[in-house]
Amino acid sequence: MRKYYTRPCNFYYGNQAKKLIIKKKAFSLTGNIHIAFDRLEIFNRKKKREIKSNIYSISEIKSLSNEIKSIVKADLRKITSKRKNIIGLKFNQPQIMGVLNVTPDSFSDGGLFFDKSKAYKQVKLMIGNGASIIDIGAESTRPGSRIINEKEEWARIEKIIVKVKKNFPAMPLSLDTRKSYVMKKGISCGINLINDVSGLNFDKKSFNLINQKKIPFILHHMQGTPDTMQNNPKYDDVLLDIFDFFEEKINFLLKNKYKKEFIILDPGIGFGKNLKHNLRIMSKISTFHSLGCPILIGTSRKRFIEHIVTKFDTPDRTGGTLASVLYGLSQGVQLFRVHNVREINQGILVFNKILSAN
Fold first, then answer.
1. Phi-psi category of 15—alpha, beta or left, where left has phi over 0 and alpha has psi -120 to 50?
2. What's the pLDDT at 55?
């Protein structure tokens, strides 16, 4: 567990960011010249539940104590380093991950794409609407969901994966599964990325498999399991606890010679978190840049939106989803897992155009 944590803040965008970086008045965020920052928020975890923070300008960093300064400088190197492109994903621009749930019971679209022909049509639609990668899953991980048999899980998605790979060979595919059996089958059919919501904790064979096959994966945080995760989740500090989880996992992976550029971080909005936890994570999401990996958020249609908007809730929650995506974009988040690809892509394009017009 760390004592100090570093969060980049006070962002600039577009031409203004570029000018400040050239003049060395601001740092580029993850090597992207179109987003810059000139302040750092430093969290001090004094005790488990006692967290203090202060915001410092770039020039004030040198006046910090040697203990803090060494940590901040190491974090800054990770915050400003360029994220390497993998499997066709370029992290100097926002990437949209389209969600395909081939399940009868997912929380928002269960049953809609359980039929193979409907699933394939949805993939085609999402690709045409601007998805950079498709995430295919066959086991619901909604709150209260139960585990299904690994062979049944694979049977649900085998044909759709094969068909998509045949007709869209250049489109990266992500496989949303916790089981090494399904991972192995998927990889043999051309899957490019593994998305394990358990953070490789469910199946102990998973890490050895992805390491052996040299497959990138999403390091996802979840407290508990899908059937228990929303039963009064508790943290000392959700933001820093998840940071510690990520850092510990990354160090383990690196010690086992797994490539760091293969790791994408997902703090798991809604997975073992209440509204207060989700808002804490989202509002300080840029903290995770100091781990040196691309960041993914999956806020699409999540229940925390309903908890905020109450009587203004809608079935697909596109407005709330887009608001969270655009905030994440403003904080340098690179990858967004969404259901409504066209609408989110539209919002991102307009948002970025406005930011670049200054």
1. alpha
2. 97
Question: How many other C-beta atoms can be found within 10 angstroms of the C-beta atom of residue 355?
Answer: 19
Q: Is the pTM of this model over 0.90?
A: yes
For 169, phi then psi, to 5°, come to: -60, -25
Examine the domain organization and report whether 121 and 50 are in the same domain. no
Write out pLDDT tens, residues 5-48.
999 999 999 999 999 999 999 999 999 999 999 999 999 998 76
Same domain, yes or no: 20 and 136: no
CB hemisphere CA count around 339 (13 angstroms): 22
Whether 20 and 12 have beta carbons less than 8 Å apart is answered as yes
Tell me whether residue 88 is in a domain.
no
| Tens digits of residue pLDDT in 185-195 | 999 999 999 99
- Is there a single domain that holds both residue 13 and residue 63? yes
Q: Where are the beta strands (DSSP E) in the chain?
A: 4-13, 27-29, 32-47, 50-57, 95-101, 133-137, 173-176, 193-196, 217-220, 263-266, 296-297, 335-338
CA 272/CA 19 separation, integer angstroms: 42
Shared-domain flag, residues 17 and 137 = no
Whose tokens are 């090597």? That residue is: 31
Contacting residues for 90 by C-beta, under 8 A, at least 6 apart: none
Torsion region of 268: left, alpha or beta (phi above 0 gives left; psi -120 to 50 gives alpha)? left
**CATH number of the CATH domain containing 320:** 3.20.20.20
Give the residue numbers marked as catalytic. Answer: 302, 337
Alpha-carbon distance of 177 to 186, in angstroms, equals 10
Instruction: Indicate the residue among 50, 80, 110 that finishes a domain.
Output: 80
What three-state secondary structure class fits 93? coil
- 347: in domain: yes
Structural domain for 70, as ranges: 4-80
Query: Does residue 142 share a domain with residue 70?
Result: no
Q: Are residues 152 and 269 in the same domain?
A: yes
pLDDT, tens only, 250-283: 999 999 999 999 999 999 999 999 999 999 999 9
